[in-house]
TrEMBL record, chain A:
Pfam families: E1_dh
Species this protein is from: Kocuria flava
Oxidoreductase keyword on record: yes
Region span, Disordered: 384-437
Protein name, as recorded: Pyruvate dehydrogenase E1 component subunit alpha
Sorted UniProt keywords: Oxidoreductase, Pyruvate, Thiamine pyrophosphate
PANTHER family: 2-OXOISOVALERATE DEHYDROGENASE SUBUNIT ALPHA, MITOCHONDRIAL
Cofactor: thiamine diphosphate
Automatic annotation (TrEMBL), chain B:
SMART domains the record matches: Transket_pyr (SM00861)
Gene3D superfamilies cross-referenced by the UniProt entry: 3.40.50.920, 3.40.50.970
InterPro entries: THDP-binding, Transketo_C/PFOR_II, Transketolase-like_Pyr-bd, Transketolase_C
Pfam families: Transket_pyr (PF02779), Transketolase_C (PF02780)
Every Transketolase-like pyrimidine-binding domain range: 7-182
Alphabetical UniProt keywords: Oxidoreductase, Thiamine pyrophosphate
Name of the molecule in the record: 2-oxoisovalerate dehydrogenase
GO MF, one example: oxidoreductase activity
Entries under CDD domains matching the protein: TPP_PYR_E1-PDHc-beta_like (cd07036)
Cofactor(s) demanded: thiamine diphosphate
Length: 437, 327
């Protein structure tokens, strides 16, 4: 340790993280060759070529869907999009480790997770089109809605898991059999700094809650690098809470699957929480309102692009399992179909009726909401001449005369389309909101 | 039939919690020091002994953790009742309360509800140090999705506690801590009145004083004093701060023509302003004077030695009545 901090350090040069003590789990090497891991290989011993191809298909589908959503945003059809490109293995590998009634608490970039949980493209894109706050029914998918206030969902996951443990104790006391379940909370490296994440972890440890904290360390918050968030790999923090932490190569779908299966199984067995840190990289922009050229160097991006999770699995499938072009072409077609369908669905969505938002503020009747709803109805009725059907008054985002939905929301309407979706030109996409807030 | 018993307000909350826990095994209590100690105000005393540590959780020390995990527990089908130790310590959980708890039902388009109750001992004049005497109701009343109740009597405390827990919406119960030792009759056999209604506690003809929680006895005393001057003052206990029962207030002011709203929170930006504005809209021509507000000053809650100058008292309510009558 230096006796006194250097001037450079004092001026705020990015601190360098010390070498990680936690080993990195990896089951597929960067060329796609299989690696043996005494602890984790057994967890994927059953994964045959067919299952591997299934994982590839999901990743490819998510990638193509993500590209389409990015394009839709560029065309003014979505108000914002948070691309997942580069994080397909972390998401698909982890969600495939879940059982149907394990419960998911996501952040806002878990599109591959959502698709795997059966969330329809229209439900998901409705959120980013400015049509719905949440988009889907948590009760149908065992997955809560996206969380925009960073870290808020982490104590929710812990609380839900505390409830799972309580249910289990109650069942045992009554001699009933229960299917063990667990909970998974997703969040990013930047979010790991939030106080609520810390509180969620302390509570999880205190109550031995069956919850897996799954961090996708994609190296960046918006423009702030991981080195500003933490001096140690996040997995190492788990020891401080008194539970297991594992670092896994987040671009290795097989490694992520193995580690998450292990972690969820442990949690389901009542052995407490686990923190999984999947080391990955966000290949694109933070959101369509972000401009990574302002803070990230090309070299870093090029290096990580070579570690593309899809390329790695493709290499493995080709060399080890003899999977040929026909399969990859088939997947590409299916992904294109899915994207086309998503696009068509989005374009067919019309804005929700404003009045429906009065319905769900409270679960029980509320006089103020009723009073304001009645006022609104009267007010709208006063526009009867302007709007023959007596419906909502014409407003931004309402259907045009021909019934086609107008660009949702003023800020993005009329923006020029950037040539490269991952590389917005200055003054285009970044001219709206700086981030998801 | 059960006989009415005399209880302090704090004990009445305790009895209300006990009954809610007996009736529904999904009701859990969570908070700091609420178990063996029974809470810093002993409101939860004895409940851990009788219901067990799995129903009365002495949580780690983190308010966002308490409310955040309560949201998760509610999503799993439980009905958590969180105790925040003191009003000033609600703010670390402010995010969970306003952006998560209040909005989850709406964000899921009604698919899930989060019936979480948050009990907060609030208000001043207990001679404590800073952050122990705040009246944060306006912050929460401003947030759609929350309901706010505040009892002023043991009878109300007993029932409101249970009504809040039974409500499918999140409810904040502000407990007037300086009234925890206030004694009154509790009739456990007589069902509670609609918690979201205001109650006329003392009828009157010349002016209306609206108060809630800790200021209700003060308002009653002010009406008593005014009567000696020949003024007949109606006193209304607002009880529910969100939603507000404007119908009862309007009905009263249409009869009396004058209204004073008294609360402990600072006047500026407080609920009194909302009530004044609404009643001006609803009963302008019935008013003989503007609706006046009595509240605390735009100062941080002061040190204990001078707090009695800060919190409105009987004389400040009388002064406002004088001003109202001077119009
Ligand atoms: C409480 C809060 N603060 C700030 C923001 C604005 N914001 C949105 S995303 C983001 C960065 C998040 O980084 P990270 O957790 O690493 O996740 P990533 O986006 O990289 O997946 C910020 C600062 C927010 N949504 N919530």
């Amino acid at each position: 340790m230096d006796a006194a901090p250097s001037l450079k350090a004092a001026r705020g040069a990015a601190p360098r993280a010390p070498e990680p003590r936690t080993r990195l789990v990896r089951l597929l090497d960067r060329e796609g060759a299989l690696l043996e891991d005494a602890d984790f290989s057994p967890w994927v011993a059953d994964v045959d070529a067919e299952q591997l191809r299934g994982l590839y298909r999901s990743m490819a589908l998510a990638r193509r869907f993500d590209e389409e959503a990015t394009n839709l945003q560029r065309q003014g059809q979505l108000v914002l999009w948070a691309p997942l490109r580069g994080q397909e293995a972390a998401q698909v590998g982890s969600v495939r480790a879940l059982r149907p009634d394990d419960h998911v608490f996501p952040t806002y970039r878990e599109h591959a997770v959502a698709i795997e949980r059966g969330v329809a493209a229209a439900e998901l894109l409705g959120v980013f089109r400015g049509h719905a706050a949440g988009g889907w029914k948590p009760s149908e998918h065992h997955m809560n809605v996206y969380s925009i206030v960073l870290g808020s969902q982490v104590p929710h996951a812990t609380g839900y898991a505390m409830g799972v443990a309580m249910d289990r104790r109650a069942a045992e006391a009554e001699g009933r059999e229960v299917e063990p379940t667990a909970v998974i909370a997703y969040f990013g490296d930047g979010t790991s700094t939030q106080g609520e994440v810390h509180e969620g972890m302390v509570f999880a440890a205190s109550y031995d809650a069956p919850v897996v904290f799954f961090v996708q360390n994609n190296q960046w918050a918006i423009s702030v690098p991981f080195s500003t968030q933490s001096r140690v790999p996040l997995a190492e923090r788990a020891a401080g809470y008194g539970f297991e932490g594992v670092r896994v190569d987040g671009n290795d779908v097989l490694g992520v699957l193995a580690v998450t299966r292990w972690a969820m199984d442990r949690a389901r067995r009542g052995e407490g929480p686990v923190l999984v840190e999947a080391e990955t990289y966000r290949l694109g922009a933070h959101t369509t309102a972000d401009d990574p050229t302002k803070y990230r160097d090309r070299e870093d991006e090029r290096r990580w692009a070579q570690l593309d999770p899809l390329v790695r699995l493709e290499a493995h499938l080709r060399t080890r399992h003899g999977t040929g072009d026909a399969f990859f072409e088939d997947v590409a077609r299916a992904a294109q179909d899915y994207a086309d369908e998503a696009r068509a669905t989005v374009l067919s969505l019309s804005p929700p009726r404003f009045e429906q938002f009065f319905d769900t503020v409270y679960a029980e009747p509320h006089p103020l909401v009723e009073e304001e709803r009645a006022w609104y109805r009267d007010y709208v009725a006063g526009f009867a001449d302007a709007s023959p059907d007596g419906q909502d008054p014409p407003a931004d985002g309402a259907p045009d005369d021909d019934g086609a939905p107008a660009a949702p929301g003023a800020p993005t309407a009329g923006l020029t389309v950037a040539a490269d979706p991952d590389r917005p030109a200055e003054g285009t996409a970044s001219g709206t909101e700086e981030d998801l807030a | 039939m059960t006989e009415p018993t005399t209880l302090t307000l704090g004990r009445a909350v305790n009895s209300g919690l006990r009954r809610a826990m007996e009736e529904d095994p999904k009701v859990l209590l969570m908070g700091e020091d609420i178990g063996s100690l029974g809470g810093v105000y002993r409101v939860t005393e004895g409940l851990k002994k009788d219901f067990g540590a799995h129903r009365v959780l002495d949580t780690p020390l983190g308010e966002a953790g308490i409310v955040g995990t309560a949201v998760g527990l509610a999503l799993r089908g439980y009905r958590p009742v969180c105790e925040i130790q003191f009003d000033g310590f609600t703010f670390p959980a402010f995010n969970q309360i306003t952006t998560q708890l209040a909005k989850m039902h709406n964000r899921t388009a009604g698919d899930v509800s989060v019936p979480v109750t948050i009990r907060i001992p609030y208000g001043g004049l207990i001679g404590s140090v800073e952050h122990h005497s705040e009246s944060p109701e306006a912050y929460f009343a401003h947030t759609a999705g929350l309901r706010i109740l505040t009892p002023s009597s043991p009878q109300d405390a007993y029932w409101m506690t249970q009504q809040a827990i039974a409500c499918e919406d999140p409810v904040i119960v502000l407990e007037p801590k300086r009234r925890y030792w206030l004694k009154g009759e509790v009739d456990t056999g007589r069902p509670g009145t609609d918690p979201f209604s205001a109650q006329v506690l003392r009828p009157g003809e010349d002016a209306t004083v609206v108060a809630w929680g800790p200021l209700v006895p003060v308002a009653l005393a002010a009406a008593e004093a005014a009567a000696e001057d020949g003024r007949s003052v109606e006193v209304i206990d607002l009880r529910s701060l969100s939603p507000v029962d404007f119908d009862t207030l309007e009905d009263s002011v249409r009869r009396t023509g004058r209204m004073v709203v008294a609360h402990e929170a600072p006047t500026f930006g407080g609920l009194g302003g909302e009530i004044a504005a609404r009643l001006t809209e609803r009963a302008f021509y019935a008013l003989e004077a503007p609706v006046l507000r009595v509240g605390a000053f735009h100062l941080p809650y002061p040190v204990a030695a001078v707090e009695d100058q800060y919190v409105p008292d009987l004389d400040r309510i009388l002064e406002a009545l004088d001003r109202s009558f001077a119009y």
